Amino acid sequence: MREMLRLRVEGPAQQVKSFMKDFGNHPQFDVKAASNLDQNDYVENDVISSFCLFEYRPLKEIIQPISVTFVTPDGKDLSFSLLRGKVIRMGDVVFIMGKANAGLLRR
């Protein structure tokens, strides 16, 4: 079992809430416990303090070969494979990153 790390973030309420949500979606950080985003400690004015406990996973453990297929509006499949890839979702945005192999796109 890995050692737990603790992260504390202070700042404007909306930025802290957005950061903590995005942090929890990142594959390298396995959040085990976090302060409730609606029940943070207010430091002053609109500044809040939030925390989480998490386990850190090195990239070499989470980056694996992946295949991705997109369907175009006209129904065609665009597929590619990555030798080492990762997918990160932040809200309604999805990031797909990795090292491409030869012949990236195939139909």
Could you explain how this protein is built, in words?
The chain is elongated, with a radius of gyration of 18 Å. The longest helix has 13 residues, at 13-25. Strands 1, 2, 3 and 4 form a four-stranded antiparallel β-sheet that branches. A three-stranded antiparallel β-sheet has the order 5-6-7. The model has no long low-confidence stretch (mean pLDDT 81). It is built from two helices and seven strands; from the N terminus they run βαβββαβββ. By secondary structure, it is α+β, with helices and mostly antiparallel strands. 16% of the residues lie in helices and 54% in strands. It has helices at residues 13-25, 59-62, and strands at 5-12, 29-34, 41-44, 47-56, 64-71, 77-90, 93-100.
Low-confidence stretches: none
Q: Which outline best applies?
A: elongated
Order of helices and strands: EHEEEHEEE
Record field, number of beta strands: 7
Helix vs. strand class: alpha+beta
Helix content bin: 10-25%
Beta fraction: over 45%
Biggest sheet descriptor: 4 strands, antiparallel
Annotation field: number of helices: 2
Report how far the terminal alpha carbons are from each other.
43 Å
What is the typical, i.e. mean, pLDDT?
81
**Estimated radius of gyration:** 18 Å
Write the topology of this structure.
Elements: E1 5-12, H1 13-25, E2 29-34, E3 41-44, E4 47-56, H2 59-62, E5 64-71, E6 77-90, E7 93-100
Antiparallel strand pairs: 1-4, 2-4, 3-4, 5-6, 6-7
Summarize the structure.
By secondary structure, this protein is an alpha+beta fold.
Keywords:
3-stranded antiparallel beta sheet, elongated, 2 helices, 4-stranded antiparallel beta sheet, 107 residues, alpha+beta, 7 strands
